[in-house]
Amino acid sequence: GQAVGEEARYRNKAVLLGPGVNIYRTPLNGRNFEYMGEDPFLASAMVVPYIQGVQRNGVAACVKHFAVNDQETDRFNVEVKIDDRTLHEIHLPAFKAAVHDGGVWAVMGSYSIYKGQHCCHNQYLLRDLLKRDWGFDGVVISDWGGTHDTREAALNGLDMEMGSWTNGLTLSWSNAYNEYFLADPFLELLRSKEIDEEIVNDKARRILRLMFRTTMNPDRPYGSFATKEHALIGRKIAQEGIVLLKNQDNLLPLDPKQPRKILVVGENAKKMMTLGGGSSELKVKYEISPLQGIENYFSPASQVTYAEGYSSVPTQNRHALLLEAVDAARKADVVIFVGGLNKNENQDCEGADRRSLNLPYGQDELIGELARVNRNLVAVIISGNAVAMPWVNEVPAIVEAWYGGTEAGNAIASVLAGEVNPSGKLPITIPKHAGQIPMYYYQRPSRYWTGYGLGSSREDEKPAFCFGHGLSYTSYEYSGLKIDSVIPQTQDIEFTFTVKNTGNMAGKETALVFIRDCVSSVVTPVACLKGFEKVSLNPGESKDIRIVIPYSDLGLWNEDMKYVVESGKFNLMIGRSVEDIRIKKDFFIK
Questions:
Q1: Model confidence at 234, in pLDDT bands (50, 70, 90)?
Q2: Active site residue 143
């Protein structure tokens, strides 16, 4: 957040249109790569320091898209029908944290329709909840073209209208801005006394407050742009976020000093990933590709060669590309496949959802063929979304690398070479196939539920990789959980435990804390993330971890839509992932 804020400030930007905290409800959502995962607690924990880092530079963060922005298909017209408990427990926590804990200065509405009104001028979301109940004193900004009605926009909390009529991008005429819903049509309602002047005063007051916080702030720093320090921050974030999904027979790390014939396969090994994706497209000073990074780390000791293998550009030579890569794989000591998604339309891209959970451009077939001819195969997936992996049992090592930014290639190679011990954990669940997605739709928003349940003992119902999953090149031991067995009402839940590095390599471990309400009056999840802590450990080193969970974090929305903490038994579960619990104890709320 600090680095992004410095860049925005240097370019004299007053508002940064982010971060996005919409909940990842389906991996088919084209815009998931901009958001912060599937878990409301995790998104809440991540958004607060991000906002604070940005706004220290006198640049407003604009948290988006408020709210229920689950899909890109038909995004201007889709009506989201969910109950109030779902809204408050899943969709709203990160936005509330952004306001209450992050002190965010701006909020952007979403395109969706909720309770019969567009979210950019929605009485319940903006006027009642955000401004009245949460006390938000900043500016509400519409998404581009997200305003549809002057009266609703005026009365229901919209302060700044962006891109109506012209959509901010396409058609234009000399007086285009006068035609906006909050321009001349709004002025006519004010002049006719149909709308009270205090309505416009409140909007003006909020916009002035935004100006005082940003462009008129005498202590506003100058910022910096495209610096080496920022690039290295990007590399560190990428390194710590990379997730080692599978590492059969310890194929990874690959010793960079050992001579090998390394074959790199895949268009994504060369493709720039900072381009594309709609409004998230970046203009970068440079971008290290995975192929460049692998060459930087493994040459000249190893001979690094490249085969494209597949192409996102329509071509008659797809089969020839596959055969060329497979033939080269037979002669290599190690094959590193670099594929995934790529920010093209219907991949990870604004305005269009994915059409399939599977990899595009024939990659699944290619990976299967590579695995058939070379047992030393590493699959590096670049994406902002979960992908189906029908080849998971045939590929010994799998790495989720996400979109790593300007230093992406060096970050990936540093993990493959063991310079960095992977420590990332999945902020999402990776299903085996589309039938395991609880909410799932085609080109039109039709939704249905399947019998996919977390914690199921049936192998066919378990995901490919669970929430929180992430391997390491070392091993960790959990012990010594201490917590009071009975906790009085309103007292925070405090406990300690120990994590030890029992392997031979220094590493970082993120301990995840889950809680289950065992006797709740309404149906609750079998595990709710309520805390996490990342520690750095040398071989043989132990560290004690102390975590405090606020009493109010144990609450739920009951059938009367009251937020309550109910007395009774709770399970405390701590481990490496939601399916790898290492220590647990029960406690009781009195």
A1: very high
A2: yes
